Amino acid sequence: MLSVPSASVLVQRHSLVTRLTHWINVLALLVLLTSGLQIFNAHPALYWGDTSTFARPWAAMVAMEQGGQPVGITKIGPAMFETTGVFGFSGDQVRGFPAWTTLPTYRSLADGRRWHFFFAWVFALNGLVYLSANIANGHVRRDLLPERDQLKPRHLLAEIADHARLRFPKGEAARRYNALQKLTYLAVIFVLLPMMVLTGLSMSPGMNAAWPWLPELFGGRQSARTFHFLSASLIVLFVVVHVLMVLVSSPLNSLRSMITGRFAIRQGEGR
Amino acid sequence: MSATRRRWLSGLAAAAGGAMLSACDKLTMNPGVQKTLAGAEGLTRRAQRLVTNRTALAAEFPASEISPDFRANGSTSPGDPEYRALVDGGFVDWRLVIDGLVERPLSLSLAELRAQPARTQITRHDCVEGWSAIGKWSGARLGPLLDQAGLKDEARYIVFHCADTLDPNAPEGLARYYESIDLIDAYHPQSILAYDMNGEPLAVKHGAPARLRVERQLGYKHAKYVMRIEAVADFAHLGGGKGGFWEDRGYEWYAGI
Lengths: 271, 257
Known about the structure:
The complex is a heterodimer of chains A (271) and B (257).
Chain A: E1 8-12, H1 16-40, E2 45-46, E3 59-66, E4 69-76, E5 79-82, E6 88-90, E7 93-95, H2 109-136, H3 139-144, H4 153-164, H5 179-202, H6 205-210, H7 213-217, H8 221-249, H9 251-259, E8 262-266
Antiparallel strand pairs in A: 1-8, 2-3, 3-4, 4-5, 6-7
Chain B: H1 3-29, H2 31-51, H3 81-88, E1 96-100, E2 106-108, H4 110-114, E3 118-126, E4 132-141, H5 142-149, E5 157-165, E6 176-182, H6 183-186, E7 192-197, E8 200-201, E9 211-213, E10 226-232
Parallel strand pairs in B: 1-10
Antiparallel strand pairs in B: 1-2, 3-4, 4-7, 5-6, 5-10, 7-8, 7-9
């Protein structure tokens, strides 16, 4: 049991539906990311537009020979980086991302696709449950939309300064999310995650026939593939920062609140 | 933290990570897991068919967008002696056979195929690997061809038997390329047996003398080097029973995604 100081109160922070969908989402995103890298490895190059200009990808991972030794090279635009062991060549194999990042670790586009398209359904349906429940019960409006006082430039600047010094709201101020937190969650929930679904569907030739406007929206199928990759990278960045913030603010309290729903707030403490 | 302790801890982390990775691989190879994951394919097919009109066309492009470097995958120069003989003879001895569950089996020469109701389309080819290329295809429409042969009521799928051995080490029946589609795609207006690409007779690497174009699915459905079209009620008795060369190797039969 986590001991709660006597001056604290436990408040109900996360509803059951939020907690369930959060952890299902963790699993789904982990499988989607790793199986997605497996799929990416089948052709580790990115393009803009509708088609692949094989000689001129805007980004690519390749293997080359240098002094009789294979090396991994990552190209981004005109820049080239040696990334042997990580990108392009790793574990004595020519491969985009290394074995430990892909599902399965061995090369299998067919298996990667199976995992990806099963968990794409899990992810999409789970997201729909989260959104419909939390829009209906007012959680999005009440807890995620920033309040007027939080959006004042002076307040935002103060929050940025606090975050930079790893100082987080305590006491009563911890009852609500801070503005940076709210804006980040909104961007992930309403921009990045839907972007993954839409750019994913844009790569489906069947969906392209049904909704030709969809790939056009992103500037063509290969652009959609590029945006799929970039959005996924931003989600990885979000997860890294999210977990870091949990670790440096109140790890056990935050983790408990996402499991049991209860979050401890120390009373009589301002900031 | 002492150096020994740090080494011990990082060793432990590496072992735990390794165990997790090998567990993921074991899960992937588990037949029950495979079957469960593959279950999503049916859901995807039904959901896509629900939102897609049967005759909804794949996007067509202006000639200016034709790819100068259309890549060829799979077989690019089949070594099968029967096929080499056809190439050497300029395909004058090639015959397209249409049989199986049909009223009137057909055998068409290339000239006869070229005389059939045709369609030309500039479409985007999407490879399962992730790349795309745009090409201009002309060919005989599959629907009218099947009508000429007269499908029997029991016919549910159209199978394309190909000339190329793509996996010479595989057992008999699994070595040669083949594909299958259902009647919704077979009768789709853009489903053609293409004999011209970008205004020229189809090159060997792209499937000469004729390949299937089934524009709403991924590249591996577009069987090259087509020799025989067979109408069947079921494809379980063919090859590995999954309806195609790549399907027998774990890829989806419905390749609209």
